[in-house]
Amino acid sequence: MRVVAGTIAGNMRSHSCRWIVATAALGLGFSAAAAAAQLASTVLLTPLAPHQKSSVSIPMPAGLAPDQPVWVAYELVALSATDDGDGELGIEQSFEGVKTSTREFFATFHAREMQAQKSAGTVAAQLEQIAGHHEPAELRQLMGAELHAAYEAVNAGNGRILTGRSVHRLAAPERSDAPLLISVERAQGMQPVALKVSVGQGDLPREFQQKTEDTGAWKLDYGLGLLAFGWLVMRFFRRRAA
Predict the structure, then answer these.
(1) What is the pTM of this model?
(2) Which end of the chain, N or C, is more open, meaning fewer C-beta atoms within 10 Å of its C-beta?
(3) What's the helix, strand, coil split of the chain in %, to 5?
(4) Closest CA to 199 of 31, 38, 74
(5) What is residue 3's predicted lDDT score, i.e. its pLDDT?
(6) Where do the domains of the chain lie?
(7) Residue 169: beta bridge partners?
(8) Distance, CA of 136 to CA of 138 (rounded, Å)
(9) Taking the alpha carbons of 224, 104, 49, 58 in that order, is the dihedral positive or negative?
């Protein structure tokens, strides 16, 4: 997460969107040791912004044991326009074509259970270094009203950056060819910037057994949030110019 804005800008101008997603995953601080126990992983960037993907189908590799339960680990970076503990994000999870109990189907992040960090009020200036200057009305159209409001609050030093982790268990899918469907359905009081989904079986990697505050992975320097915003801004305006 210790990313210098100028370095990000140079990299983003010369690399593809695939590089951006990979960098976002690395920005969330996952170790190679943790990855070794995983079956698959992916990142959703600003999933509730207009024209962004809010859901993903994750194919399972040949190593999946269909008769064994599966763990799903979520790691979230979100923005909140307020200083209180209200707010939640709702996720739906299931294997395609596999009956899933109500208890397993839903995953929820609560703002009061996440780590909160105040902004230094420099987000807009750093974003401009990455993606150039854009008027507030343009950014609002890009981000959507709610995410833009949270972004403005964080930039003003009033809002908060929230980070958290949540691990869930799903019953054995009984099929080796069923992809895992993940969908970000709703948000209230906070807006997601990046959600990483990791899927595995067997023992939970140590990385996911630790509390969020016990790891260095969540010491934010605005790197991941700015990376996501910068990518959105550049993609959006390049599309309009085409």
Answers:
(1) 0.78
(2) C
(3) 35, 30, 35
(4) 38
(5) 34
(6) 5-241
(7) 71
(8) 5
(9) positive
